[in-house]
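ok so i was messing around last nite and threw this chain in just to see what happens. nothing serious, just curious
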Amino acid sequence: MAYAYLAYLQLEHKFPPWSYEVDGIADRDTRAASHYWVAMSHAWTHRRFFVTASGKLGLGPKVMRECDILVVLFGGPWPFVLRLCGTDHQFPGHCYVNSTMHGEAVREHYVN
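result:
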């Protein structure tokens, strides 16, 4: 669906219609682009794009701040955001970080 979305943007120079606006006569690629657009819109609602100090792109909780810390917990399914608050920590939530979702961070630090 991502390819259909990108092709739609390049061809039409606008975002695809929402899936409820796509009628029965729309072609398969337009429907795929529309479904992808809706899925991505739901994925980033209440989320914030960010860039780590090392230049990796990510998507995290909307409440993230510049001073927050990204951590990878051993065996955890994704990176988490921690915030130092005096001697305690807050847990704003989890995040997506490019090149960190499938054990890359652990391999980066522990594999020679």
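not much to say yet. DSSP finds three helices and six strands in the chain.
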